[in-house]
Amino acid sequence: MIRSQCWSLLALFTMAMLANAPAATHAGPSETSAEIEKGRQLAERMCAICHLNPGQGEKTAASSIPGFAAVANRPGQTIEGIVAWLASVPPMMPNHHLSGDERVSLAAYILSLSVQDLEPVGRDGSAVEKPSR
After folding, report:
1. Residues 121, 96: contact at Cβ < 8 Å?
2. CA triplet 109, 57, 74: central angle to 5 degrees?
3. Helical pair 100-112 and 79-87, crossing angle rounded to 10 deg
4. What is the CATH number of domain 27-112?
5. How many CB atoms are closer than 10 A to CB 116?
6. Domain locations along the chain
7. pTM for the complete prediction?
């Protein structure tokens, strides 16, 4: 009973955070580039040591850390999903006390790392090319 109430509260909190988050999906090209650049600067300052390592892929175990490119290439990944996840202050991460604008900028940067010609990265961190049609 208590566990279901916690999940309900978490869902309500996430929806409230998304409702109050700035909309990055309606930005023009120059606004989007500026948002990505702000996110890149945040990532380099606060996230790089754990999430921006060369060759870093998807999580391989519960205690491993995914690279941001792997996060960007997860199936169905969206800016809203990343913003909501950052707003939830995941227990395995330090609380950086990000503002709503910072979460949106960081999410925009993470999604900018998506590789369009590749399927999402596999569990071993390697990208799998799409089959030819």
Report:
1. no
2. 60
3. 130
4. 1.10.760.10
5. 6
6. 27-112
7. 0.64
